[in-house]
Amino acid sequence: MTDTSNLPTLPSQPTNVDWPNGDWPTGTATTANHVALGDLLDHAFSDPNGDGKGPDDMGPTHAFVAIQGGKLVSEAYAEGYGPTQTYPSWSMAKSMLQALIGIAVRDGKMSIFDRVGAPEWPAGDPRAELTFDQLLRMASGLEFDENYVDGDISDTISMLFGEGKADVAHYAADKPLIHPIDSVFNYSSGTTNILVRALSTVLGDGEPLSAQDFEAFMRTELLDPIGVTHAVPKFDGVGTWIGSSYCFMTARDFARFGLLYLRGGWWGDRQILPNGWVDYARTQSKVPTGDDEFMGYGAHWWLEIAGPGTFSCNGYGGQYIVLVPEKDLILVRHGDSHDVQGDGVKRWIKDVADCFAVA
Questions:
Q1: CA distance 33 to 40
Q2: What is the pLDDT of residues 294-351, one digit of tens each?
Q3: Which sequence spans correspond to the domains of the chain?
Q4: Can you spell out the DSSP letters for 162-222?
Q5: Does the domain spanning 34-355 belong to CATH 3.40.710.10?
Q6: From 7, 169, 207, 233, which residue has the greatest number of CB atoms within 10 Å?
Q7: Closest listed residue to residue 62, CA positions, set 336, 358, 339, 348
């Protein structure tokens, strides 16, 4: 699919460690600086101003989970939160969609180079040439304003909460091209929802699945096999999963999803994702991602938040699943950080990862 020669090797599950089909096996972290890790966790869960808003640089943290060597090695929750509570995915759900598309590729139902197709794009419309690959890499060229904080109502807000909420894929697919296809990176929740409907149409042999049938596909093919028992996806008025934003799960279940990718798409002796799919997710797109000092972008996964070779699912408010192959490490963080605190959370994530040693 892409040049993967520079990617770090993904670690295998240790032979003496059970897969977390039920409870996570527990163990001790391999840390380079145990004291620093404790200080970072104390800071994340602190409330120095006594107002429930957490530290000024990163806002409140609600949950933290660390998995190393396939074992739960660290876990912490704020008061009022816990391991059985579900947390919002926000845009971490985008990476879950990437997995679902991979399953369809595995089963021979489609290729990433197939045209997406949309009823809004008639024959002869240049948008009709868009492929799954181009949308997965956020290089569609479609107009979409991904903004959560400015005073103007952005496309994201309109799609999720305003005029587009009844049919999120239609709202996004109706947008015009404003750049040549595959020339500009534009991170877009609308793009993801177009992909959800397109996948649903592939699975339904030309007609989108009902919400009930699509959720059954999610559970049967992805969630159940990796032991996720608390997932709550959300659908719009026409039955499209809002894959840009909504799949509530526990912190431990988000870590299970991370483990699937850290293990190259395998779970025990079952191959859930096709060969090369995880490498496709974690390979930098040929379209530059801009000036973000922390991250690049692959195929619906972010890259290098915790250093070279790392890759992550990122969600609004500071939701993260971070994979560090070199250390066989998964970090999950849930919280409620404001946009201006985003860089502080990213620095904290990298500092936490740096506290762990190679397993």
A1: 11
A2: 689 999 999 999 999 999 999 999 999 999 999 999 999 999 998 888 899 999 999 9
A3: 34-355
A4: STTTT-HHHHHHTSPB-S-TTS-----HHHHHHHHHHHHHHHTTTSPPPHHHHHHHHIIII
A5: yes
A6: 169
A7: 336
